[in-house]
Amino acid sequence: IVNPSITAVLFALLVGLIPPLKSLFYSTDNQNNPPLQILTISIATMAQATIPCMLIVLGANIASCWKDQMNGQLTKLSISKFVIIFIAVWNLCIKPIIGAMIVLVAVKINLIPNNKIYMLSLMLPA
Q1: Percentages (nearest 5) of helix, strand, coil residues in the chain
Q2: Cα(29)–Cα(96) distance, integer angstroms
Q3: What is the pLDDT of residues 62-111, one digit of tens each?
Q4: Is residue 119 a contact partner of residue 112, using CB atoms and an 8 Å limit?
Q5: How confident is the model over 53-65, as pLDDT tens digits?
Q6: How far apart are CA 38 and CA 26, in angstroms?
Q7: Positive or negative torsion for Cα 87, 92, 97, 98
Q8: What single-letter DSSP state applies at residue 124?
Q9: C-alpha pair distances (Å), 44 with each of 34, 111, 123
Q10: Is the pTM of this model over 0.85?
Q11: Which residues in 53-82 are b (16+ Cβ under 10 Å) and which e?
């Protein structure tokens, strides 16, 4: 199974670890315009559009949940309001509190260092 993310990482490692290949894509001290720099510029430009495109796809998927499969008419979502409110409260209130408590307990028992930036980076995914 070929995963695009793994393929990209392997290609980036290959380019980054071999200096002649790296000099084809990125400028070095003695080379101002590498021959394949246009590829890196194009990829960086496309990368800036990934999050807006993902949001559009997410919105389309949510909108498709509202459509009836038979006639395409808009119908009520099959998920109850309680479930939606519970998911929102869980993700926005309860899960961050639990994550912060886990990090603070880990600091208290000296499992992780008492570094505020490190603690914040551990709390952010929660």
Answers
A1: 65, 5, 30
A2: 46
A3: 777 666 555 666 555 566 778 878 888 998 899 999 999 999 999 999 99
A4: yes
A5: 888 888 787 777 6
A6: 10
A7: positive
A8: T
A9: 16, 38, 29
A10: no
A11: eeeeeeeeeeeeeeeeeeeeeeeeeeeeee
